[in-house]
Amino acid sequence: MSSTNKTSIKARLKDYLLITFASSIYGLATALLVDPNNIAPGGITGLAIVLNRIVPIGTGMWFLFMNIPILIVAIWKFGIRFTISTIYATAVISLTTDFFSTYLSAFYINDIILGVTIGSALSAVAMGIIFKSHATSGGTDVIIKILRLKYPHIKTGMLYIMTDVIVLIIAGIVFQDITAALYSFISVMVTSSVLDLVLYGRDGAKLIYIISDHPDIITARLLDELDIGATHVFAQGAYSGEKKKVIMCAIKKRLSPMAEDIVREEDPNAFMIVTSASEIFGEGYKSYFDERM
């Protein structure tokens, strides 16, 4: 076995160990902090908590059941190679959520403030580790990607808001408690903020320059898979005199690791500069005029 293959296997093993650890933390936070306090933090997890109040078979079991058709479609649309780690993370989250709910019920923390803050923060940290290990927790991420294929005129951020709002409305109806629904909304905000902080620090966005021998393939994947814009800047090497297309794109923080993965897969020898962009004005970002009103 070559040294490159050994390195690749070690890297994947490390990824799966981190996914196992983070998914277990996610399950622990859901079982002991979020679920007992009737918090539905958006997405599939929130919907699983709500459905478990109607048919009590376990929040983790509901999480798994709802993800099965989503993951099947993900395999069909995006291939097993890019879905297998997400399948694993989903299974571990499901199993650990119900395990902790059953065997650590004596340690339930019945405090909605702690559930919203500590529970949501722990979930976000766990999700951040999962994302950094080249996986996702399934559910909403896959749904949004599929919806974008059918409704490309609707922006990704709007679809996330719509799905979370639907879950929050359902939670308010099932719990018959508007306070619980409002706390669930706060949970969504806490999770989003902490996840951004874990993944990308305090930077607002990323500006990426890519110099590659395969610019058209990389650009096509960035446009199709990440739903971002890109610009070709025509440049000429100072020493070689060779003319090249330089890909320039401003990108949301959470998408930066995925963009880097695309470049790495298509051209391991590509020259890539990733820098922080503190402010970006224009479509998909901030309005210049609104910021100064």
Automatic annotation (TrEMBL):
It holds the Pfam family YitT_membrane. Its main location: membrane. The keyword DNA damage does not apply. It is found in: Cell membrane. The chain crosses the membrane at residues 16-34, 54-75, 112-131, 157-175, 181-200. Residues 229-282 form the DUF2179 domain. One of its GO terms (cellular component) is plasma membrane. Keywords: Cell membrane, Membrane, Transmembrane, Transmembrane helix. It is a multi-pass membrane protein. This is DUF2179 domain-containing protein. It comes from Butyrivibrio proteoclasticus (strain ATCC 51982 / DSM 14932 / B316).
